[in-house]
Write a structure and sequence with these properties.
alpha/beta; Aspartate Aminotransferase, domain 1; Aspartate Aminotransferase, domain 2; 2 domains; 7-stranded mixed sheet; 11 helices
């Protein structure tokens, strides 16, 4: 039996990580400017993170949600304080797709409706309802097709208004910043109008912060840049720094009913220990401020380069660099020759950068130097 090939792979096997770097079996060192799909928020193998998980394994690794687990309360309290959503409820699960699936289910339960609006370029996961609302037809199987998923043009408010007038809408699902689409931000007025329309028609606003959350953009959640409050927020990726952990933050207006949502592994003791460690490190090392500073510096440095760079998009350490050519060869060359990992997107000309939030200015300069060399070498 062979492992199923999830993505096309680089011919590199990292076996060790520390901070911003990875090492392969041959001892070669690689700079991680992608964070394994934005998962590595606090850096690889952080000492406090390792210690928290190790201590928990020596006590209890797992028991089901049929018993009390004070670690869940500790995680929820810390997350509420750092995110500014103290009054919200937290449902813990294992992945971003699972978080979105449960958020959509909650919205349908709460409103009694079944239609949901999402947007072109959006990516919300590969499970049933999440993939139906994802604008990637190539990963949507026939069983996932449903008339309840209404995908509208991103950043165009008139089609949204018309859809609200003609349908009973349970929720609007939107990313704080679209990641896989190549780092595309919602217009502030677009997002605020979505909030107003949800209020007017009794729908819920769900902000998908799975990739853009946990400080990556310099605010805890990307939608907080626009002074908008969501009814439901989904989070994952950087929440566990590699340990499978995701969550749904739920407005106090929704009354929980036991059994409405369920999970076997979600919120288990080891996952909570990992999640608590991430929040403690984010706060102690002021990584939101680090993301803002390093992100601004990275913007400045790449914009000063003389290369076929058309635009730089994003906030904090969620950055899309759009070139005048397909970036596939550039990404491969950066790994093979310069030992730097970067990310792709559904926009072939966009290079995606989502490094650990511990990125510093010296490493920004190192990356920009190697990026410029790589572009010259493949020209």
């Amino acid at each position: 039996m062979e492992p199923f090939e999830v993505y096309s792979r680089f011919a590199v096997e990292p076996v060790r990580g520390e901070g911003l770097y990875l090492w392969d079996r041959q001892g070669r060192k690689y700079l991680d400017m992608y964070g394994g799909h934005a998962v590595i928020s606090i850096g690889h193998s952080h000492p406090h993170y390792r210690a928290r998980i190790r201590e928990q394994t020596e006590k209890l690794g797992f028991y089901s949600n049929a018993v009390e687990n004070s670690l869940q309360k500790e995680l929820a309290d810390k997350l509420g304080r750092l995110s500014g959503y103290q009054e919200y409820q937290l449902f813990l699960c294992n992945s971003g797709a699972e978080a979105n699936e449960n958020a959509l289910k909650l919205a349908s339960f709460h409103t009694g409706r079944k239609n949901v609006i999402s947007f072109t370029g959006g990516f919300h996961g590969r499970t049933s309802a999440a993939v139906a609302l994802t604008d990637h037809p190539d990963i949507r199987a026939p069983i996932n097709e449903t008339a309840n998923a209404i995908i509208l043009p991103f950043n165009e408010i008139e089609p949204v208004k018309q859809t609200f007038e003609g349908h009973e809408i349970a929720a609007v699902l939107i990313e704080g910043i679209q990641g896989i689409a190549g780092i595309r931000e919602p217009d502030p007025e677009f997002l605020r109008t979505l909030r107003d329309l949800c209020n007017r028609y009794g729908a819920l606003l769900i902000c998908d912060e799975i990739q853009s959350g946990y400080g990556r953009t310099g605010e805890f959640f990307a939608h907080q840049h626009y002074d908008v409050e969501a009814d439901i927020i989904t989070t994952g990726k950087g929440m566990g720094n590699g340990f499978p952990l995701a969550g749904v933050l739920i407005t106090p207006d929704i009354t929980p009913v036991p059994g409405m949502l369920g999970t076997t592994f979600g919120g288990n003791h080891l996952a909570c220990a990992a999640g608590i460690a991430v929040l403690e490190i984010l706060q102690k090392e002021d990584l939101l401020a680090r993301a803002r500073d390093s992100g601004e510096y990275l913007f400045q440095q790449v914009q000063a380069l003389t290369m076929p760079l058309e635009t730089v998009r994003g906030k904090g350490l969620m950055i899309g660099m759009q070139f005048g050519f397909d970036c596939a060869e550039l990404r491969t060359h950066l790994v093979k020759k310069h030992h730097v990992f970067t990310g792709s997107s559904s926009q072939p000309q966009t290079l995606r950068l989502m490094p650990p939030l511990t990125l510093d200015r010296d490493t920004v300069e190192y990356f920009v130097k190697h990026l410029a060399q790589a572009v010259d070498e493949i020209a």
